[in-house]
Amino acid sequence: MRRLLILVLLSAASSHAAAQSWPSKPLRLIVPYAAGGPVDISARLLAAKLQESLGQPVLPDNRPGAGGNIGVDLTAKSAPDGYTLVMSAIATLAINPSLYASLPYDPLKDLRHVTLLVQVPNVLIVANDLPAKNVRDLIALARERPGKLDFGSGSTGSTGHLAGEMFKMMTGTYMVHIPYKGSAPALADMMGGRIHLMFDNLASALPSIKSEKVRALAMTTKTRSSFLPGLPTLDESGLKGFDMTTWWGVSVAAKTPPAVVERLSAEILKAMDAPDMKERLRGMGSEAPAVRSPEQFAAFVASELKTYTELVKRSGARAD
Question: What's the predicted TM-score (pTM) here?
């Protein structure tokens, strides 16, 4: 027992010492997606803020590929010293583990989750010429025309795709999924009359909703969005328990010293609470997340992983 206590004290002292000297060199912020998307934009905003507060360069490094898996795996296998961070997201932590037959990392064992940054609600939108003014109309139409309605998404296994699969399962309807390479071309095809509906993230869909180029029927989140307070949720519209949100945060290698993780979390939260940062992220459709501490984020990831593992399996979606 005495030896165990000594080891615990030495480990705590080592972690504290690491945090005291951290950071002493530039940090690398891996973005596992291509440049220009919302995750990349928020990463660059965060990097600039952290660079100011930490006094060290924070260098965004885009490593796209395999649905984000490549960038996350690089982080999981990096030195656990707090100098390699990754923008981890719902896809890489909750969806891909069951979407891909083989994943090179375990989202719970190989990473330590620092904090959740952004939650962007999804919204059910339909083409203006579709004779469905609300969710009840859409369900009735889908039942009248099984297999005749197409719903688009940014990719197979995306939250837009899985929201559609959840909608089908909860309503007992059958619609055809049309995957695209990004939500923008799917939205363009819907406005052009080539698909009927989609479950898009609010940041992407909001301009088209406000310009009345598409019709919004409901939010996919359990609570209404402050951006569209008059729009009901799917839960309110009869699909009890329907709750789906796109999110991303920051993670590091699993054995990163706890004191370094706590310091990093505090610095990130300080950056996220800056008024200019809040304004920029709100412009992307982001709602402020309630999950903030490393412990809360880890529990959130575990819960989301369980939810999406079941949903992906039930939907039959595969990315191989």
Answer: 0.84
